[in-house]
Amino acid sequence: MLVVAVRRAVPGDSGDSSPLDVLGAVLLTGAVMAWVVGASLLEFARWRLPGIGLVVLGVLLVPALVAVEGRHRAPLLPGSAVRDRNLRAGAIGSFLNTATTSSLVTLVTLHLQGIDRVSASAAGLLLLPFSLAVVGGAAVAAPFLRRRSPRAALSTGLAFVALGILALVPFDGAASAVPFCMALSGAGLGLASVAANTTGTDVPSALAGVAAGVLNTAAQVGTAIGVAVILLVAVLSGSGGPATGAGPGRAGSRPARWPCWASRSSRAEASVPG
What we know:
This protein is mostly helical. It has 2 domains: 20-76; 83-270, Up-down Bundle (Growth Hormone, Chain: A), CATH 1.20.1250. It has helices at 2-9, 22-41, 48-71, 79-83, 85-114, 120-147, 150-168, 178-200, 208-239, 258-270. It is globular and about 60 Å long.
């Protein structure tokens, strides 16, 4: 249905007969998938070697992607887009926004339900201030951007995200502290997201479509990699060594010191934006 709707609504471009960059798309998708799946497998001891192999494979695919893009008439990611400072800054900001906050929400949710034994409904209510604060932060972004640059807004937003994460550490993730701390991070995410999009889309009109795709991809990759990495750090911090999980399909043994590694993981994540 989506394909039919696009074909009906989007006018054709008869002025450009360049072939699609299929090989570039395959290499880019393969590299991202290898990083995400590899990072996810690193949590499990018996799957750690394949996980490392996939991460290395993703890295090795990057030079191949660069070579293919350099020869293609209509590359998936033009050199002018790679060289554009605004697009680079916006993509990095989008990645950091989702890498930090998605992993934070995941970790806090697991802590609330796994350690504090809070029900799913109660956990959702405790996390609700995060979503509400995102809306508030986005609303504040417009007047903020009239006075300061988008990069200043991005830095300020990420600082609030880090502040919310750090604020959880002294309370060891206690449920009573969650609404306030999550609201801080949510407000920062709302401000930083608007700033990242504003910066990343401030490009020449010829790069508008590419910029939208890059920003969206960076955000999605940030979520996937951020969650995988923070859970790996959490497991290793709590056990004091490699995780003993049997594999992706089975839950391995988990250390009893769950709150300990949860707070350590928050510290590790909070250092990312800086």
